[in-house]
Structure formats: structure tokens, C-alpha cells
Write a structure and sequence with these properties.
The structure is a homodimer. Chain A is α/β, with parallel strands linked by helices. The first copy, chain A, contains 16 helices and 16 strands. In chain A, the strands form four sheets. The first copy, chain A, has an eight-stranded parallel β-sheet. The longest helix of chain A has 27 residues. In chain A, α14 packs across α15. At the A-B interface, α14 and α15 of A face α13 and α14 of B.
Chain lengths: 383, 383
């Protein structure tokens, strides 16, 4: 592993403590400090679905994610730049990470075509033909004013042929180099993360990690996981990659995951996560709690005056009755999605805060065991 | 006008000041005090659309309205009673008024039939055949634990034949008497309001007001307005009715209205209002402000970093840019509806608070003129 290139970039990450492979630290961005391990809620088009930014902050969120693909199409990166950047535009005013846009071109856009130079596609909003190259992706992310920009990469859904995984991995390495060159004009303090690909093939993961670190970035992401493979495969790939990443830079596992995914990944050295799961599951009536998932659609809750978790420090979790949540979900009331989204985000952020404390105190193993025991215990019995 | 009957019911309303016909007072309910004039946001099925109860309270709301028709069908009044009443069920824990359910049977249910005894209909949720009589409506409202129950009445859309208006008005008087008898078993402190009908016919309004006051209620509502008639007709009918209502009881104008409707009606002696307009218009991208209505869909806002009203004391009104609101509305993001709903409710409640202050200070006429001048000035010019 070469440290020569990434060492040439300023380091804004401070590792505060480790416990086994688990880490806790501070990442200083132009818009504020991020405590790690950090969970980043996803504000796709510049907004969280069903949550005010003020409540996101109150729930313990340090950093949010915006989607470049959506924002470049509407309201456009140029407009957001003229309005002072994404943080000011949304009123969030805190740290933001943006993805490169590449992943969502693949899942949302029509008539997409990938070649060495760029991805071309038609906008899902108005059908306009758009070209997204690594250089344009960085330009867009700089216009958005992202505290952390991501290199453009190609992500392959699993299972996939090894030849396809390797081709996409090699392309991602070349796009990473082009992304880094394009990022040279970024203002001081802003960061660019490289992305390790390689699917579920250890040798390709090793090669991708080495190549990405050789290019050198402010931080390193692991992409192409949580795309259809079993959790055990994901965790094995994290271990394969983490061994090749510099210890002094932040590590971000993209698009993950369940609370258990987060806990298991922290245990293998991951510092940052993003996922739509807490808000998406909330919109579908599912709560995450200390004692596992609770489906509020279930008729057992209809007459239950008890809250989801009377020991939670989050008011909506501690005070709202299951009967009311059940009623809201069954009635399709927006307030049900709003309450469950904030309950879930608050649970995720509580989990991350507890993890940080446990690592700081050298008690991560105990916390890991206790947390899994609580999840396995499951929800309180019906009354 | 006879005071004999209504005088026999305890009075929970205290008139604090008058200025011309405008009034300000305090209505004490089992779940708290309501400052009048009061605007009641509508939480149809036990939830405000797009607003947390905590934000409703922060915006200056003293009392909210629930719809008996929706709640009796789902989750049912019996279930809400077993969970401690609507205030506790929703977590609002403040004063609540419920309508009788009759109006929404007419607008939402299938196969409805009105006779002397009751309204029968099929539920719009599951097709079940349901009978709603004045006695059952009161029973349901007592199960819900409403601080203020409404008598069952029949409301005729305007324009209508005088014979139809009179028939519905006479039926409403008889249903009012039956509602009052059914309410005799209500616990102390809970209130029942009668409803004056009579369409746009002054003689029928007089007869209805006299008959309703003869029956005697804790307060008096004016129904059957804002159902298609011009504002001038509505205001004329308020004047016809108000002259026949006892001055020591609260007066509630049902289903009204725009900020100007509220201001004009207070000027004619109204104390309470309810309307879906602030939240419904918010969901459609329209904001109410000190300088009139603003349609955030309009492209003029797309690049405008200015807030809706920089002098507002409500944070979302003072801090959120028009450009961001425009983007949210155009993108169909739930946060747009959420922000505009609370911005509008906060504006309505600010207006009511300012009205109360103006009446207390004997300055209502000045406030009335200044407010209308501001509305007429209109929104700030585009940049």
C-alpha cells in the first residue's frame, strides 16, 4: 500500500480512539464537524422525505447526503451555486456529501450509455439528453458546494460475471484519476473521496483498493456492496478492502444499511454510512427500535397505548402510542410517515452515538453483544 | 331572544373586551383555555396533514378540530374512548372540537339517505351501512371526549330553493333539541354548540337563531355559509344572525375561511373559526403572508433567495428562501407541503393573535385598515 499520493492531500480526519478494528473520530468539513462513525440520511433532491432539517439536526445528525443526479437536473447545479450552495439553499447549513450521480443514472435514467469518456442518458424529468463525465460530475459537485464530493465510478449489481466486475472496477480506477485531476481547483477544506469497487471478488477488491489509494484521496469509500449479495459476503469484502486502506483516512461504506449492517461494519473499521432505509421503511410503517423492527401495520398494535420504546430519549418514540401510529399508517396519513421517519432516524443516530461512546470507552465488544442481544430479544409481547 | 334556556347551562366563556362588534375572550375547556378569536386547524382523521402537533402548538394554536365522520369509521369512537379520548390518542392533549359528522356524510359517503330520524349511508372506507342520528352523533362525540361537541344539522349548498333551505333549517332545529337531550349525560365542563342554519334568507336565519337560542347551548355556530355564496352574502348573513345571539356565549363560524373572511367576520362579532384552507393551499404551493397570497409555483421565485416575509416571527417564514420552496413544490417533495402548511397555520394564528391584541387595546379599526392595506399592497416585486 502506497501512502505517498494520499499523504500529499491535506487530512481533515482525526482518529480519536480505536477498539479492535472499530474506530471513532472527527472529520472537519467547511460546514462543520462530523463525529464518526456517522450515519448520513439521504436528502435526495435537496430535501429529506417527511422530515424537517431542524428535526434531522435534533435527532443527532451531523451530515446529510444529496444526490447529484437529481440536483443537476432540477433545480440544476448552476442555480444552487448562484444561491450559495446546497447547504445554504436547503437551509440545512451543515456538512453535506454528494454522490457522483453515476449510480442513479444507472437506476433512473432512460437510454443510458456508458463509454470510456462518460455516461450519456435522458433525464427522467424532461427527456433532455445529458452527458455525465467524471469531470462534469466534479464540476457539478463543486457547484453544489459539497463538503465531500465522490469520484465517479461504475457500480455492478451482484451476482455478476467476474469479467464485468473487473471491467467496471478498472474503469472506476481511471475515472478516479480523472476525478482527482478535476478536483484540483477545489477550494481548501473541501474533500474528494475515492471509491473501491470489485464486486464480491477478493482479488479485484485488493487491486481496486491499491489502485484507489495510489491515486490518493481525502477519504475512501467502498462501493458496489449492498447490491444484492448476502450480508456475509458484504462483511467479508469490507475486511478484504479495509486491510488495504490507510488507517488515518475516513472510510465510507456506501448505501448501507440495516442497524445490524452498521454495527457489523463499524466492527470492521467503517466510519461513515448512508442509506434511505430508515426513512423508506418509516414510510412503509416499519419502526427500528432497540428491540428490533416493529411493523405498525400489524393489528396487534391497534389497541396498544404503549409507545415504541418508553426508555427512548426521542420524544416521538417515547410518547406516541402504537395505537396512534397504527391508525396513521392504516389511514395513509402523512403524519404516520413523518413520525416513523424521525423515529427511525433518531434510532439510527442514537445507535451511532452509542457506538462512538463504546469505542471511546474501549467497550465496543460489550456494546456489540448487548445490542445484538436486545435486537434478538425482539419487541415487547402484545398486551 | 330568550335567554332562559341557554342561561341554564353553565357558561365557560369570558368576554374580556369588545371594540365595536369585535370581541376577545377566553373559553375554558376540560383540556385547556382557548383565546378568542380563535382559529381551529382541521385534523380530519386525528392528524393534521403534513404538520406535527408540536409545531401546531408552537404556531400559536389553542384548539384543533377533528371530524366525527372519519373517526367513527376509523379507528372508531369506541377505540378512541378506550385509549383515553381524542386528545390523548393523538398526543395533542389540548382542547378539541368535533363536528357532528352530518356534513361529511353528505359530501363523502355513498348511498346516503336523510329522514327525520337519522342519516344512513355506506362508509367510504369499507362499504359498511352506518346510521348517524343526532343521538348517535352525540354518543360518538362523547366517546371521542370532545371538549366541544356540535349538534347534528343539515347543511344546504347555495344557491338553493327557499323551501329546501327552510326544510333543512327546521330539521336542524329539531335535531338540535334531540342533540341537547342526548348531551345531558356529558361530564361537567364539556360543551355542546347549537348551529344556526337558514341559507341566504334573512327571515330563515332569524327564525333559526331564535329557535336555536331557545333550545339553549353552551355556544352558537353559524353553519351553511362558505358553501358557494359570495363573501358579501356571507357577511350579511353573519350580521343577521349575530343580532339574535346572546353576547355572553361564544360564536363559531363554521368552515371559514380566507384571512379576509376571518377579519371581516371578527368585525361582525365572530369568536371561532375552522378551515382546511391554510393546509390545503399550502399543499398546493400557495402561501398566505402579510402581503397577500404568494404562489410558489410561479417561476419568478426560482432564483429568489429572499424569504416569504423577512419580518415574520415564524422561523420557516423568515428563513426559508422562495427559491427552495419553489424547488420543493415543483419537485413534489413532501417537505414543500410541510413547510407551506406550517407557514400558513403560523400566519393564521399570528393574524388571530394580532386581532386579539387590537380588540384588547381598542384599536381594531386601525388594525383592520392596516391589515387590508398590506394585503392590497401585495407581494414584494420580483428581483
Amino acid at each position: 500500500m502506497s501512502f505517498s499520493d494520499h499523504m500529499s492531500l491535506p487530512n481533515h480526519f482525526e482518529l480519536l480512539a480505536t477498539d479492535g478494528a472499530a474506530r471513532t473520530g472527527r472529520l472537519t468539513t467547511p460546514h462543520g464537524v462530523v463525529r464518526t462513525p456517522a450515519f448520513m440520511p439521504v436528502g435526495t433532491a435537496g430535501a429529506m422525505k417527511g422530515m424537517h432539517w431542524r428535526d434531522l439536526r435534533a435527532a443527532g445528525t451531523d451530515i446529510a447526503l444529496g444526490n447529484t443526479y437529481h440536483l443537476m437536473l432540477r433545480p440544476t447545479a448552476e442555480r444552487i451555486a448562484s444561491l450559495g450552495g446546497l447547504q445554504k439553499f436547503t437551509g440545512w447549513n451543515g456538512p453535506m456529501l454528494t454522490d457522483s450521480g453515476g449510480f442513479q443514472v444507472m437506476s433512473l435514467a432512460d437510454l443510458r450509455k456508458v463509454d470510456e469518456k462518460a455516461v450519456t442518458f435522458r433525464s427522467h424529468i424532461d427527456g433532455t439528453k445529458v452527458e455525465l463525465s467524471p469531470e462534469r460530475s466534479i464540476e457539478v459537485q463543486l457547484l453544489l458546494g459539497s463538503d465531500i464530493a465522490m469520484q465517479m465510478d461504475e457500480c455492478v449489481r451482484l451476482p455478476a460475471e467476474q469479467a464485468d466486475i473487473e471491467r467496471a472496477m478498472q474503469l472506476s480506477l481511471r475515472w478516479g484519476e480523472r476525478s482527482k485531476r478535476a478536483f484540483e481547483r477545489a477550494p481548501a477544506g473541501y474533500m474528494l473521496f475515492g471509491i473501491v469497487q470489485g464486486g464480491d471478488v477478493p482479488a479485484l477488491r485488493h487491486a481496486s483498493a491499491r489502485g484507489t489509494v495510489d491515486t490518493g484521496f481525502h477519504g475512501y469509500a467502498i462501493g458496489g456492496l449492498a447490491v444484492g449479495e448476502p450480508q456475509a459476503v458484504m462483511l467479508a469484502m469490507i475486511e478484504e478492502v479495509a486491510a488495504h486502506l490507510p488507517t488515518d483516512r475516513p472510510r465510507y461504506l456506501m448505501g448501507v444499511g440495516t442497524p445490524d449492517d452498521l454495527l457489523q461494519s463499524v466492527r470492521r473499521g467503517i466510519d461513515m454510512f448512508d442509506c434511505v432505509m430508515p426513512t423508506r421503511n418509516g414510510r412503509h410503517g416499519v419502526a427500528f427500535t432497540r428491540y428490533g423492527q416493529v411493523n405498525l401495520r400489524n393489528a396487534r398494535h391497534a389497541d396498544d397505548p404503549r409507545p415504541l420504546d418508553e426508555s427512548s430519549e426521542w420524544p416521538a418514540t417515547r410518547e406516541t402510542s402504537r395505537a396512534y401510529l397504527h391508525h396513521l399508517v392504516k389511514s395513509g396519513e402523512a403524519l404516520g410517515a413523518m413520525l416513523l421517519s424521525e423515529i427511525n432516524i433518531a434510532y439510527y443516530q442514537r445507535l451511532m452515538a452509542d457506538i462512538r461512546d463504546a469505542v471511546s470507552n474501549g467497550a465496543f465488544d460489550d456494546f456489540y453483544q448487548k445490542t445484538r442481544t436486545d435486537w434478538e430479544r425482539g419487541d415487547i409481547p402484545p398486551r
